[in-house]
Write a structure and sequence with these properties.
By secondary structure, this protein is an alpha/beta fold. It has one domain (6-267): Alpha-Beta Barrel (TIM Barrel). The chain contains 9 helices and 14 strands. The strands form 4 sheets. An 8-stranded parallel barrel has the order 1-2-5-6-9-10-11-12, surrounded by 8 helices. A two-stranded antiparallel ribbon has the order 3-4. The protein has a two-stranded antiparallel sheet with strand order 7-8. The two termini are 22 Å apart. The chain binds (5S)-5-amino-3-OXO-hexanoic acid and zinc ion. (5S)-5-amino-3-OXO-hexanoic acid is lined by residues 12-13, 81-83, 85-86, 105, 107, 113, 118, 142.
Protein backbone atom coordinates (compact mmCIF):
# COMPACT_ATOMS: atom_id res chain seq x y z
CA UNK A 1 0.00 0.00 0.00
CA UNK A 2 1.07 3.60 -0.57
CA UNK A 3 1.69 5.74 2.47
CA UNK A 4 -1.55 7.35 3.63
CA UNK A 5 -2.40 10.79 2.26
CA UNK A 6 -4.69 12.82 4.50
CA UNK A 7 -6.52 15.71 2.88
CA UNK A 8 -7.75 18.47 5.17
CA UNK A 9 -10.87 20.19 3.83
CA UNK A 10 -10.73 23.02 6.36
CA UNK A 11 -13.45 25.44 5.27
CA UNK A 12 -15.71 24.45 2.33
CA UNK A 13 -18.44 26.70 1.03
CA UNK A 14 -21.48 25.79 3.12
CA UNK A 15 -20.68 25.61 6.84
CA UNK A 16 -21.22 28.81 8.86
CA UNK A 17 -19.69 30.16 12.08
CA UNK A 18 -23.08 29.70 13.68
CA UNK A 19 -22.81 25.98 13.03
CA UNK A 20 -19.09 25.67 13.86
CA UNK A 21 -17.62 28.58 15.87
CA UNK A 22 -14.04 27.55 15.00
CA UNK A 23 -14.54 27.69 11.23
CA UNK A 24 -11.59 29.56 9.66
CA UNK A 25 -12.62 32.45 7.39
CA UNK A 26 -9.83 34.95 6.68
CA UNK A 27 -6.70 34.01 4.69
CA UNK A 28 -4.67 33.99 7.93
CA UNK A 29 -7.19 31.83 9.78
CA UNK A 30 -7.42 29.37 6.89
CA UNK A 31 -3.61 29.22 6.65
CA UNK A 32 -3.31 28.64 10.41
CA UNK A 33 -5.85 25.80 10.13
CA UNK A 34 -3.99 24.29 7.15
CA UNK A 35 -0.70 24.50 9.06
CA UNK A 36 -2.16 22.83 12.15
CA UNK A 37 -3.48 20.03 9.90
CA UNK A 38 -0.06 19.71 8.25
CA UNK A 39 1.51 19.40 11.71
CA UNK A 40 -1.05 16.71 12.52
CA UNK A 41 -0.14 14.71 9.39
CA UNK A 42 -2.12 16.11 6.46
CA UNK A 43 -0.30 16.29 3.11
CA UNK A 44 -3.04 18.03 1.08
CA UNK A 45 -5.23 21.04 1.87
CA UNK A 46 -8.48 21.14 -0.11
CA UNK A 47 -9.01 24.87 -0.30
CA UNK A 48 -12.09 27.07 -0.50
CA UNK A 49 -12.01 30.75 0.45
CA UNK A 50 -14.51 33.12 2.04
CA UNK A 51 -15.21 36.83 2.09
CA UNK A 52 -14.67 38.57 5.44
CA UNK A 53 -18.41 38.25 6.17
CA UNK A 54 -18.09 34.47 5.80
CA UNK A 55 -19.88 34.12 2.47
CA UNK A 56 -18.24 31.79 -0.08
CA UNK A 57 -16.27 33.26 -2.97
CA UNK A 58 -14.02 31.95 -5.75
CA UNK A 59 -12.27 35.31 -6.07
CA UNK A 60 -8.83 34.81 -7.56
CA UNK A 61 -7.17 37.44 -5.35
CA UNK A 62 -8.65 35.93 -2.20
CA UNK A 63 -7.17 32.58 -3.25
CA UNK A 64 -3.84 34.26 -4.04
CA UNK A 65 -3.69 35.82 -0.56
CA UNK A 66 -4.68 32.59 1.17
CA UNK A 67 -2.20 30.44 -0.74
CA UNK A 68 0.56 32.97 0.05
CA UNK A 69 -0.27 32.69 3.77
CA UNK A 70 -0.22 28.87 3.59
CA UNK A 71 3.12 28.96 1.76
CA UNK A 72 4.64 31.11 4.52
CA UNK A 73 3.84 28.29 6.94
CA UNK A 74 4.44 24.94 5.19
CA UNK A 75 4.75 22.96 1.94
CA UNK A 76 1.36 21.21 2.15
CA UNK A 77 -0.12 20.54 -1.31
CA UNK A 78 -2.74 23.18 -2.02
CA UNK A 79 -5.69 21.74 -3.91
CA UNK A 80 -8.00 24.57 -4.94
CA UNK A 81 -11.71 23.99 -5.34
CA UNK A 82 -13.33 24.48 -8.73
CA UNK A 83 -16.65 23.45 -7.20
CA UNK A 84 -17.11 26.66 -5.25
CA UNK A 85 -20.68 26.94 -3.99
CA UNK A 86 -23.85 25.82 -5.74
CA UNK A 87 -25.18 28.43 -8.14
CA UNK A 88 -21.81 29.92 -9.08
CA UNK A 89 -21.00 30.24 -12.79
CA UNK A 90 -18.19 28.29 -14.45
CA UNK A 91 -16.25 31.56 -14.87
CA UNK A 92 -16.44 32.27 -11.15
CA UNK A 93 -15.48 28.74 -10.23
CA UNK A 94 -12.45 28.60 -12.51
CA UNK A 95 -10.73 31.75 -11.20
CA UNK A 96 -8.19 30.01 -8.90
CA UNK A 97 -6.86 27.95 -11.83
CA UNK A 98 -5.35 31.16 -13.24
CA UNK A 99 -2.91 31.01 -10.29
CA UNK A 100 -1.42 27.74 -11.62
CA UNK A 101 -1.95 25.78 -8.38
CA UNK A 102 -0.47 22.32 -8.03
CA UNK A 103 -3.83 20.62 -7.87
CA UNK A 104 -7.57 21.30 -8.22
CA UNK A 105 -10.84 19.47 -7.93
CA UNK A 106 -12.87 18.48 -10.98
CA UNK A 107 -16.41 17.34 -10.22
CA UNK A 108 -17.51 14.72 -12.72
CA UNK A 109 -21.22 15.34 -13.13
CA UNK A 110 -24.40 17.07 -12.02
CA UNK A 111 -25.91 15.96 -8.73
CA UNK A 112 -28.64 16.90 -6.27
CA UNK A 113 -27.03 18.63 -3.29
CA UNK A 114 -29.40 18.92 -0.37
CA UNK A 115 -32.20 21.18 -1.61
CA UNK A 116 -30.02 22.46 -4.47
CA UNK A 117 -28.48 21.16 -7.68
CA UNK A 118 -24.69 21.16 -8.10
CA UNK A 119 -24.47 21.71 -11.84
CA UNK A 120 -21.64 20.12 -13.84
CA UNK A 121 -22.92 19.45 -17.36
CA UNK A 122 -20.97 17.48 -20.00
CA UNK A 123 -19.60 20.62 -21.70
CA UNK A 124 -18.63 22.09 -18.31
CA UNK A 125 -16.58 18.98 -17.54
CA UNK A 126 -14.69 19.35 -20.82
CA UNK A 127 -14.15 23.05 -20.24
CA UNK A 128 -12.89 22.56 -16.68
CA UNK A 129 -10.59 19.69 -17.72
CA UNK A 130 -9.22 21.73 -20.62
CA UNK A 131 -8.49 24.69 -18.34
CA UNK A 132 -6.67 22.45 -15.84
CA UNK A 133 -4.66 20.92 -18.68
CA UNK A 134 -3.70 24.33 -20.08
CA UNK A 135 -2.45 25.45 -16.65
CA UNK A 136 -0.79 22.07 -15.90
CA UNK A 137 -2.88 21.54 -12.78
CA UNK A 138 -3.31 17.94 -11.49
CA UNK A 139 -7.01 17.13 -11.21
CA UNK A 140 -8.65 15.29 -8.35
CA UNK A 141 -11.87 13.82 -9.73
CA UNK A 142 -14.71 14.46 -7.28
CA UNK A 143 -17.15 11.55 -7.39
CA UNK A 144 -20.50 12.23 -5.73
CA UNK A 145 -22.56 9.62 -7.55
CA UNK A 146 -22.33 6.26 -9.29
CA UNK A 147 -22.02 7.43 -12.91
CA UNK A 148 -19.26 9.94 -12.29
CA UNK A 149 -16.25 7.59 -12.57
CA UNK A 150 -17.19 6.78 -16.15
CA UNK A 151 -17.61 10.52 -16.87
CA UNK A 152 -14.02 11.01 -15.67
CA UNK A 153 -12.79 8.20 -17.91
CA UNK A 154 -14.60 9.81 -20.86
CA UNK A 155 -12.42 12.89 -20.33
CA UNK A 156 -9.41 10.58 -20.68
CA UNK A 157 -10.78 9.13 -23.92
CA UNK A 158 -11.12 12.71 -25.22
CA UNK A 159 -7.48 13.45 -24.34
CA UNK A 160 -8.39 16.07 -21.73
CA UNK A 161 -6.79 14.39 -18.70
CA UNK A 162 -3.73 12.21 -18.25
CA UNK A 163 -2.77 9.51 -15.73
CA UNK A 164 -1.91 8.98 -12.93
CA UNK A 165 -5.52 9.51 -11.88
CA UNK A 166 -6.66 10.40 -8.38
CA UNK A 167 -10.31 10.16 -7.35
CA UNK A 168 -12.09 11.47 -4.26
CA UNK A 169 -15.37 9.74 -3.36
CA UNK A 170 -17.64 12.20 -1.57
CA UNK A 171 -20.20 9.90 0.03
CA UNK A 172 -23.27 10.78 2.03
CA UNK A 173 -24.30 14.13 0.52
CA UNK A 174 -28.12 14.27 0.77
CA UNK A 175 -29.33 13.63 -2.79
CA UNK A 176 -26.17 11.81 -3.90
CA UNK A 177 -24.62 8.36 -3.34
CA UNK A 178 -25.02 7.25 0.30
CA UNK A 179 -21.96 6.39 2.38
CA UNK A 180 -21.79 2.62 2.81
CA UNK A 181 -19.06 0.00 2.60
CA UNK A 182 -20.86 -1.57 -0.35
CA UNK A 183 -20.99 1.71 -2.31
CA UNK A 184 -17.35 2.46 -1.53
CA UNK A 185 -16.25 -0.97 -2.78
CA UNK A 186 -18.38 -0.59 -5.91
CA UNK A 187 -16.59 2.67 -6.72
CA UNK A 188 -13.11 1.35 -5.90
CA UNK A 189 -13.67 -1.66 -8.14
CA UNK A 190 -14.68 0.58 -11.04
CA UNK A 191 -11.36 2.46 -11.08
CA UNK A 192 -8.76 1.89 -13.78
CA UNK A 193 -5.50 0.11 -12.93
CA UNK A 194 -3.04 2.38 -11.14
CA UNK A 195 -5.57 5.00 -9.99
CA UNK A 196 -5.49 6.20 -6.40
CA UNK A 197 -8.51 7.25 -4.35
CA UNK A 198 -9.58 8.94 -1.17
CA UNK A 199 -12.94 9.07 0.55
CA UNK A 200 -14.73 12.00 2.16
CA UNK A 201 -17.60 10.72 4.26
CA UNK A 202 -20.14 13.43 5.06
CA UNK A 203 -21.20 14.10 8.66
CA UNK A 204 -21.34 10.98 10.83
CA UNK A 205 -20.00 8.95 7.91
CA UNK A 206 -16.59 10.63 8.05
CA UNK A 207 -15.09 8.30 10.65
CA UNK A 208 -16.29 4.93 9.29
CA UNK A 209 -15.36 5.86 5.71
CA UNK A 210 -11.90 7.02 6.84
CA UNK A 211 -11.41 3.75 8.71
CA UNK A 212 -12.32 1.71 5.63
CA UNK A 213 -9.95 3.74 3.45
CA UNK A 214 -7.03 3.14 5.80
CA UNK A 215 -7.46 -0.64 5.67
CA UNK A 216 -8.37 -0.85 1.97
CA UNK A 217 -5.33 1.07 0.78
CA UNK A 218 -7.19 4.27 -0.08
CA UNK A 219 -6.62 7.76 1.30
CA UNK A 220 -8.67 9.95 3.62
CA UNK A 221 -10.29 13.38 3.57
CA UNK A 222 -11.53 14.98 6.78
CA UNK A 223 -12.33 18.51 7.89
CA UNK A 224 -15.10 20.98 8.58
CA UNK A 225 -16.18 21.11 4.92
CA UNK A 226 -17.55 17.59 5.33
CA UNK A 227 -18.12 17.20 9.06
CA UNK A 228 -18.12 19.60 12.01
CA UNK A 229 -18.47 17.03 14.82
CA UNK A 230 -15.89 15.01 16.70
CA UNK A 231 -18.59 12.60 17.80
CA UNK A 232 -22.39 12.67 18.06
CA UNK A 233 -23.44 15.85 19.86
CA UNK A 234 -19.86 17.13 20.31
CA UNK A 235 -18.49 19.73 17.92
CA UNK A 236 -14.86 19.26 16.85
CA UNK A 237 -12.47 21.81 18.39
CA UNK A 238 -10.51 22.23 15.18
CA UNK A 239 -9.84 20.72 11.79
CA UNK A 240 -6.53 19.44 13.17
CA UNK A 241 -8.36 17.44 15.84
CA UNK A 242 -10.04 15.46 13.04
CA UNK A 243 -6.70 14.92 11.25
CA UNK A 244 -5.03 13.84 14.51
CA UNK A 245 -7.61 11.10 15.02
CA UNK A 246 -6.99 9.69 11.52
CA UNK A 247 -3.22 9.86 12.11
CA UNK A 248 -3.60 7.90 15.37
CA UNK A 249 -5.75 5.26 13.67
CA UNK A 250 -3.29 4.96 10.79
CA UNK A 251 -0.42 4.46 13.25
CA UNK A 252 -2.32 1.67 15.01
CA UNK A 253 -3.03 0.02 11.65
CA UNK A 254 0.60 0.29 10.49
CA UNK A 255 -0.15 2.71 7.66
CA UNK A 256 2.56 5.39 7.71
CA UNK A 257 1.56 8.91 6.65
CA UNK A 258 2.79 10.50 3.42
CA UNK A 259 4.60 13.82 3.70
CA UNK A 260 3.56 16.46 1.16
CA UNK A 261 6.56 15.56 -1.04
CA UNK A 262 5.73 11.86 -0.82
CA UNK A 263 2.16 12.70 -1.75
CA UNK A 264 3.43 14.70 -4.75
CA UNK A 265 5.21 11.58 -5.92
CA UNK A 266 2.10 9.41 -5.52
CA UNK A 267 -0.03 11.98 -7.38
CA UNK A 268 2.43 12.71 -10.18
CA UNK A 269 2.90 16.35 -9.20
CA UNK A 270 6.33 17.72 -10.18
CA UNK A 271 8.10 19.38 -7.26
N1 LIG B 1 -19.35 23.16 -2.34
C1 LIG B 1 -19.83 22.11 -3.18
C2 LIG B 1 -21.05 22.54 -3.90
C3 LIG B 1 -15.27 21.02 -4.77
O1 LIG B 1 -14.73 21.67 -3.91
O2 LIG B 1 -14.76 20.78 -5.85
C4 LIG B 1 -18.82 21.65 -4.15
C5 LIG B 1 -17.49 21.28 -3.63
C6 LIG B 1 -16.66 20.46 -4.56
O3 LIG B 1 -17.08 21.61 -2.55
ZN1 LIG C 1 -14.87 21.50 -1.72
Amino acid sequence: MDKLMITAAVVGAEITRNQQPNLPITPEEIADAAYACYRAGASICHLHVRNDDGTPTQDRERYRATIAEIRKRCNIIVQVSTGGAVGMTAEERLQPIELNPEMATLTCGTVNFGDDVFWNGPKDLERFADMLKTHRVRPEFEIFDAGMVSNALNLYRKGLVEPPFHFDFVLGVPGALPASAKNLLFLVESLPEGATWSVAGIGRHQLPMATLAIVLGGHVRVGFEDNIYYRKGELAQSNAQLVERVARMAAELDRPLATPDEARKILGIPR
